[in-house]
Specification:
Chain lengths: 481, 888
């Protein structure tokens, strides 16, 4: 049965309506939404959209969201010399899957390194958050810190693994954003459903495969969006010198000619799909640049997101665009921070204090502003914000003032979308080494957000493409309202 | 965008009948198949127990009964699946998830209700009897009732299916449709207006067959079909971060050129497979053949040898055999009769091999050019079974030896291959000696010239002249050393009498020591000269001057030491010298050749079937066996199995000629059918065969990514048909007008326009997707490519007609023919002429128009004349027309 069967009559009688009128309608009703239903049944969704913030390189968990005073107390001692020696013989170490030994990193560092940042309690919940994250911390009562996440890859292939649930050596698989795209209907006919911002993961670590759909097909890939009204996505605008009216005329003729052909071949579904794809393309041309044109935002909003300041401008613009996208019904907005063409800027093997000070400054205020803004607009209830990094960092020091990669226990936080606020769920041991309470592999985060979107992860499967148990994960029911 | 999903797959419906009556076929059989049958089924019978048929479940196993019908609580099977003790519970840990409460309830009810099942349940047979594991035999041609369906063997099989099912095929397509379809199918480009006319007006009975032959003979055919096979064989240009190689190989395009040339030459498929897997063992001294081993070299992976070999095993099996042997990497295959150890036995075939790059004439630096190829670097390397696929766990005492999966009952007939000298010692390639000696000679000549100039210019500076003389001595000695060492190496690798060899070795050693000594003398004189210059410098910054002098002094000291060493060395008399090149093992294991010979053996049940299925897919839009890389037990015998087998035998018996198969398929009536039916026929046939599985009409197809880009260029007359050569930067895809197959295509290095139109994923693509997404519309509407080419074509067409009668009408007619290879209907013509008027009127007052404000620059400016610019717009629209990207 063709998905167009029911619309064919409407479509053909519609042919008289030219692109000029579509353009007018589109410009007048920029935010007009239309629901295209999904074939997958949604079970009482709590959230409509996801904003997924991914810090590339590995943010230190113990200096951000998981305070470990024992590190300072035992600083300089080797782990063997402390009461925490058993972490070195834990069976959890077996979860690590090494691909190629990298002589420079990916080792347990034995000499404990003191905390580089102070902590404070925030909000009514009294959640402890480091002073590198003051703006995020002001939203503490909406945050749910999952302090017990673990992954397998001790190198930066973990960036890909965080998005597919599969180890880098297993190859490429659909990412969480593409599954959401696949599983949910669109809420806005003018925009792609899965949008990606920021420089992607570098090719070492999965590259653009961290937001692609692989076997689901390219229509479920994340669509990259640049904060540039002149060039927000590939081929978003014709080359120099083309007039809008000229293109409207062309699209109108194209629609008429394709309509003539469609009448000649009433059983050709592809031609109808193609006609629609041109209509959506036409509207995307208008709607997408509008997302990244912030003229209608107040000065206060600009200031709040940090768009006026050099350090915060870039990420602030992306956060503001993220809000504008979910406001218009886009389902999944994935934002990368810290790409540097290699492992990522957060990868603080040395000079952790200096680099994290700089990087937190770039993202903290914009993320805090996003949360506050969503809340103030009543959007936080239906928007699930996830903050993550591929792994944490070692309790021990590397190169005297840095920390190495740490897959055994780290923090991911969520906010909004029906997730409990002011909560710290799960825990690592006293030195932040292993996740020891309520342990969660990365796909438990995926399963939780799918659950909130009303999707059953186990229904997300394609015949002939076997998904492993670990790709599905399990919703973290304890954090759901 | 998601509205298009219906094209790409149906979701698994996980409906269950919880609460309803349990039905064995619906509820229990699939459950046991998923959870138990891999170990208790036709493939394996752990504990002598099979759970893949109700009769066998009742029969029980070595341990007695498995179920007590009517009483789940007393049934051992039920106890095992509910057991809490992980040592007791089935499925065992790691072999599958335990049954959920809903499934347990179903199983309990079924047993409690008496374990009822239909008596005529078919018991799965021995997997070795699977259809695809039997050698294909040529079935007798069916007799078609309809005389039109008797001429071509393909048609007789298809007609039999039509008649059996009661569908009526549509008529043969008109000549305009056929000529365009043929051009796209065989050369990947649309026909020109002349080419269309020539065919449409050719009344001879052989017109069609002649055109098929003509296109098969065109070198453009190799590019079109080469690209198809590049998908299947996983072509990828090199990838890596900056200049660091991480995957595939530099200059792998030489394998791409080999593919295109081989396809054009109609080299037998058997020969192609053999050259790709073992070209270094059958033609170790032929650079042209060695290019073929790019098929293996392409799997190179910098960080991990296991990833490299896993890809090699997986894709050799998928591409040539339609086998998913990769599923047996961590455990025995769950569906096919392949044990885990057999996966590693296949890996052992490839274990010794590695990659190197041969120098090509004219380019001594293999970073700049060369031929990447494989060779057996470590004939004695061992393969181990990784427990659970984890490379950390293996038994060092139990290596696995190269062998074929037992289901094929064939030994791997391995015979070591003795390699010729040139393969053992590649410096023996004549061009290498000639070029390296020539370079040394040039060095002598250059230095001689410098000396002459020095004598003229610096007549009063005896020091400078002395340094120049030493430099000449050194260059001359270097040349002598090179010649002597070359002579000795040649003697060594091209067997010579031992006394001759000994003399040559000694001469080489002496010449080398002498060269070393003379170089050391020159270096000392030279560094001393530099020190003098530094000391005499007028540099006013004392610190800088001192630093320069210190550096120069250090160089002098180093040169002194070098000279002392060389002098000591010069007193030696042994015959040890530095070889002029690297040497490699003298024999190759022959394992890859043995594998290749088995793959292309005429009795191999899979090879020819897999190949003709790929060819069929690319002519008909659908394959005969739906999963092109898995002919295992998950692929039931296909509807058109007899046709598939007939074609497979035909391929083998015609020297594996792919052109022969193309000719057969393209001259069939089946291929020439129209792609649409009138509504009566459509309605009647759709009731029986809605998906056209019986080929009662042709499938409408979308052009491949490369064909779309090439066609935009070609209809405008811009396509550069130069063939072969190094990969072109993908970033220049819209400004360099070569065919798309020649642009870099690798992980992270792909042309956006091609990716949007479902170009092959460089890692794996056994079948292209055919999506319809708005980004494609934007690419064709807004690219500089389509805009520039449409302007160019509009201007050319207008120049052709503008002075004649009915110029505008003629323009519209020519535009349709040129861009869509068909004539315009009268409605279309009227619509277009109306557009031309309106559009010209709009464009006539640019002051009232709004620019988009795009930043990219088109390579062809829009016409300043609004009437002509409207015509450019019309061509642009036709390049975006549904029919431009569609094969009807």
């Amino acid at each position: 049965m063709s998905p167009f069967e029911s619309t064919r009559r409407g479509f053909l009688s519609d042919l008289g309506l030219g692109f000029g009128s579509i353009a007018a309608a589109s410009m007048l009703q920029q935010d007009a939404t239309a629901t295209i239903p999904s074939q997958i049944q949604q079970l009482a969704p709590k959230a409509k959209s996801v904003i997924w913030l991914f810090m590339i390189g590995g943010t230190s968990h113990m200096e951000s969201f998981d305070p470990k005073p024992a590190l300072t107390k035992y600083a300089g001692m080797t782990i063997e010399e402390t009461p925490f020696k058993p972490v070195l013989s834990s069976p959890y170490l077996e979860n690590e899957r090494v691909v190629a030994i990298d002589p420079n990193n990916g080792f347990i560092r034995n000499e404990l390194y003191p905390l580089q940042m102070s902590y404070r309690r925030w909000g009514e919940s009294g959640l402890e958050i480091s002073d590198w994250w003051p703006h995020v911390a002001r939203q503490a009562d909406d945050l749910c810190l999952v302090r017990s996440v673990w992954t397998e890859d001790s190198n930066h292939g973990a960036q890909l693994q965080f998005h597919t649930g599969r180890h880098r050596v297993d190859g490429f698989f659909p990412t969480i954003g593409s599954w959401v795209n696949y599983g949910l209907g669109s809420l806005n006919e003018n925009l792609p459903e899965f949008v990606v911002m920021g420089t992607p993961v570098a090719d070492c670590c999965g590259g653009v495969e961290a937001h692609r759909a692989n076997y689901l097909g390219p229509q479920y890939d994340g669509v990259p969006l640049n904060i540039d009204p002149a060039n927000p996505l590939p081929y978003a605008k014709p080359p120099k010198g083309v007039y809008r009216e000229e293109q409207i005329g062309e699209f109108d003729l194209l629609r008429r000619l394709n309509g003539i052909t469609a009448e000649q071949y009433p059983d050709d579904d592809a031609i109808r799909a193609r006609i629609r794809s041109y209509e959506l393309a036409f509207r995307m041309q208008m709607a997408v640049p509008e997302i990244v044109r912030f003229d209608d935002e107040t000065q206060q909003t600009h200031t709040q997101y940090g768009i006026d300041e050099d350090e915060t401008r870039s990420f602030g613009q992306q956060m503001l665009a993220a809000r504008r996208l979910v406001e218009r019904g886009v389902r999944f907005v994935q934002v990368y921070h810290g790409s540097n063409g290699g492992a990522g800027q957060w990868d603080a093997h040395k000079g952790l204090k200096a680099s994290h000070t700089k990087l937190c400054r770039q993202v903290d205020q914009p993320i805090g502003a996003l949360l506050a803004d969503l809340k103030q607009r009543g959007l936080l209830d239906e928007t699930l914000v996830v903050w993550a990094s591929e792994f944490g960092r070692t309790p021990g020091s590397q190169h005297s003032n840095g920390r190495d990669h740490h897959p055994y226990g780290f923090t991911v936080w969520m906010a909004g979308g029906g997730i409990k606020g002011g909560l710290a769920h799960g825990a690592t041991d006293e030195i932040g080494f292993h996740a020891v309470e309520d342990r969660h592999y990365v796909t438990d985060i995926h399963a939780t957000l799918l659950h909130q979107l009303g999707l059953n992860p186990r229904e997300l499967a394609i015949p002939g493409r076997k998904r492993l148990e670990k790709e599905f994960g399990n919703p973290i029911h304890e954090v759901i309202v | 965008m998601r509205v298009y999903r219906a094209f790409f797959g149906v979701l698994i419906a996980t409906s269950s009948a919880y609460g309803a009556d349990v039905d064995y076929a619906r509820d229990i059989k699939p459950l046991l198949r998923e959870k138990c049958a891999a170990c208790h089924g036709a493939l394996k019978q752990e504990a002598g127990l099979r759970l893949d048929a109700a009769k066998l479940i009742r029969q029980g196993g070595d341990g007695g009964e498995a179920i007590k019908p009517g009483d789940a609580a007393k049934s051992p099977l039920f106890h095992r699946v509910v057991a809490e003790d992980p040592d007791e519970r089935m499925p065992p840990e790691g072999d599958g998830e335990r049954l959920n409460p809903e499934q347990l309830q179903l199983l309990r009810e079924w047993i409690d209700n008496g374990a009822i099942a239909s008596a005529d349940e078919v018991i799965p047979t021995d997997p070795a009897e699977h259809w695809a594991y039997q050698s294909p035999v040529r079935a007798a041609l069916p007799l078609a009732d309809n005389a039109d369906w008797q001429a071509n063997p393909v048609d007789t099989f298809i007609a039999e299916q039509h008649e059996g099912a009661g569908v009526s095929p549509v008529a043969v397509a008109d000549r305009h449709t056929l000529v365009r379809r043929l051009y796209f199918d065989l050369i990947g480009l649309p026909p020109s207006r002349d080419q269309i006319d020539r065919f449409v007006n050719d009344d001879s009975s052989s017109a069609y067959a002649n055109l098929v032959d003509e296109l098969l003979d065109s070198p453009l055919y190799g590019e079109r079909w080469g690209r198809h096979w590049m998908d299947v064989w996983r072509y990828s240009d090199w990838n890596g971060y900056k200049n660091q190689l991480r995957g595939s190989q530099r200059h792998i395009w030489r394998w791409r050129d080999w593919i295109i040339e081989s396809i054009n030459d109609d080299k037998g498929y058997d020969q192609m497979v053999t050259e790709m897997l073992a070209g270094d063992e059958i033609a170790p001294d032929d650079l042209n053949v060695l290019r073929a081993t790019g098929f293996l070299a392409r799997n190179y992976h910098t960080s991990n040898r296991n990833i490299w070999l896993d890809a090699t095993v997986e894709h050799t099996a998928k591409a040539f055999l339609g086998m998913t042997i990769n599923c047996a990497r961590c455990h025995d295959h769950k569906f096919d009769p392949i044990a885990q150890t057999e996966y590693y036995a296949m890996r052992a075939v490839f274990e010794p091999h590695n990659v190197r790059t041969e120098r090509v004439p004219g380019q001594p630096n293999v970073m700049n050019d060369g031929v990447p190829r494989v060779f057996d670097a470590e004939p004695d390397s061992k393969t181990f079974l990784y427990v659970g696929g984890n490379e950390k766990y293996f038994d060092k005492e139990s290596p696995v030896f190269a062998a074929l999966p037992a289901v094929f009952s064939e030994p791997l007939d391995v015979k070591p291959v003795t390699l010729p000298p040139i393969a053992v010692f590649p410096a023996l390639w004549p061009h290498i000696e000639a070029e390296d000696i020539h370079r040394a000679e040039q060095q002598v000549a250059t230095v001689k010239k410098q000396l002459a100039e020095s004598r003229k210019k610096d007549a009063d500076k005896s020091d400078s002249i002395a340094v120049a003389e030493l430099k000449l001595d050194s260059a001359q000695a270097n040349l002598n050393s090179l010649r002597a060492r070359w002579a000795a190496d040649k003697a060594k690798y091209v067997s010579s009498a031992s006394n001759v060899l000994e003399n040559l070795n000694r001469a080489a050693a002496n010449a080398e020591r002498n060269a070393e000594l003379l170089k050391a003398r020159f270096d000392l004189a030279d560094t001393k000269g530099r020190l003098a210059v530094a000391e005499a410098s007028r540099e006013t910054d004392a610190a800088k001057k001192k630093a320069a002098i210190d550096t120069a002094k250090k160089a002098v000291e180093a040169a002194k030491k070098q000279l002392a060493d060389a002098q000591a060395n010069a007193k030696k008399e042994n015959a040890t010298y530095t070889s002029v090149g690297k040497a490699y093992p003298r024999t190759s294991t022959g394992r890859r050749l043995a594998l290749a010979r088995w793959i292309v053996n005429s009795k191999n049940p899979l090879t020819a079937r897999v190949a003709v299925n790929h060819i069929w897919l690319r002519h008909f839009g659908e394959p005969l066996v739906s999963n092109t890389f898995d002919f295992g037990l998950r692929s039931p015998r296909p509807k058109h199995a007899d046709l598939l087998d007939w074609l497979a035998v035909e391929l083998v018996e015609h020297q594996w000629s792919m052109k022969h198969i193309h000719r057969l398929l393209l001259t069939s009536r089946t291929w020439q059918l129209r792609s649409s039916a009138d509504s009566v026929l459509q309605t009647a046939n759709t009731k029986i065969d809605p998906d056209n599985r019986l080929y009662w009409r042709a499938n409408v197809r979308r052009l491949d990514a490369e064909v779309i880009r090439d066609s935009v260029l070609h209809v405008a007359g811009s396509l550069d048909l130069k063939q072969g050569g190094a990969d072109i930067d993908y970033a220049n895809g819209e400004t360099v007008s070569r065919r798309s197959v020649y642009f870099r295509h690798a992980y992270e290095k792909q042309m956006t326009m091609l990716v949007l139109f479902d170009a092959a994923g460089p890692n794996e693509c056994y079948r292209r997707s055919k999506s319809i997404i708005p980004q494609q519309a934007l690419a064709l509407a807004n690219s500089t490519l389509s805009l520039s080419e449409s302007r160019k074509l509009a201007q050319a067409l207008w120049a052709e007609v503008k002075d004649g009668a009915d110029a505008e009408l003629r323009f519209v007619q020519l535009a349709f023919k040129q861009v869509l290879a068909r004539s315009a209907t009268s409605t279309e013509t009227e619509t277009c002429r109306g557009f031309l008027n309106r559009q010209a009127a709009i464009l006539a007052s640019p002051g009232s128009l709004t620019e988009f404000g795009g930043k990219t620059a088109s390579t062809v400016e829009a016409s300043g004349d609004p009437i002509l610019r409207a015509k450019e717009n019309l061509i642009h629209v036709l390049m975006n027309h549904n029919d431009f990207v569609t094969i009807r």
